[in-house]
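Quick one, T. Sequence first:
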Amino acid sequence: MNTSEAKRVLETALLCAHEALTVNDLRKLFSVAEGEEPTLEADAIKEILAELQQDWSERGIELVLLSTGWRFQSRSEMKIFLDRLNPEKPPKYTRATLETLAIIAYRQPVTRGDIEEIRGVAVNSQTIKLLEDRGWVDAIGHRDVPGRPELLATTKQFLDDLGLSSLEDLPPLQQMGEEQLPGSLENAAQLMEHNLQASLDQASIDFSIDDSADSSDSQAITVQQADAEQSQSEPDNDRPTTH
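C-alpha cells:
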C-alpha cells in the first residue's frame, strides 16, 4: 500500500470514529492478518497524520491530538454557525461548580479541604458528584494525613472534551501571590474560574445529558437538579466554612 492509499484509510477511519484513536489503534488498520505485525510503522503513521493536518488546515474541521489520541473536530470559529442548528442553549454550571472544577484543574491533586480553603465556603458533595458523573474529575489516591482525604484530579475525558492534549494547554495563570491577588484566595478561585470558562466556551461544551444514557429515573443527576440542590446549601452569599 502506498502513502496516498494509507492516507485515505487513516482519514476515513478518523472521520468515522466515535472517539479519539491512538497511533496503535490506527496501526491495526494495516494488519494483513490477525496476530501479525501491521505493515505500517508508527513513525510512518505520524508523518501521514501531520500531512492530514496540513491538508485540513484551511477547512472548518481540524485534525487534533488529544490526551487519548487523534480525532477530527470543528474549529472554534465555527461555533457561532453550528449553534444555529441547535438554538436552545444548554444549561450552564453555577459559579460554585466552575470554581470547584477550576481549582481542581489548576491545583491538582487537591482534597475537598484544599478547595474549601481557597473558596472560603464548604464544598457541596453534589458538586463533586456532578463532576465525577460527567467524567471530568476522579479520585486518584489519598493524602497521607489523619482521615486520609481523597485526592481529586481531572481526567483524560476532561481534556478531550475541552479539546486539549495536556493540562499544559489550559490558559496560563499569573503567579497567584498576594501582590497579584490582594483580595485573598477567593480571587485566585475567580481567576481560575475565568480561565476555565474561556476553555469551556471555546470547546462548545454541551452540558445536557448524553442521549445514549439510560433515560430512566435512575440516570445520573442533571445539571439543573444539581444546581437546585446546590442553591439550597450554597446560596449566593456563600456559607463560610466552619473550622
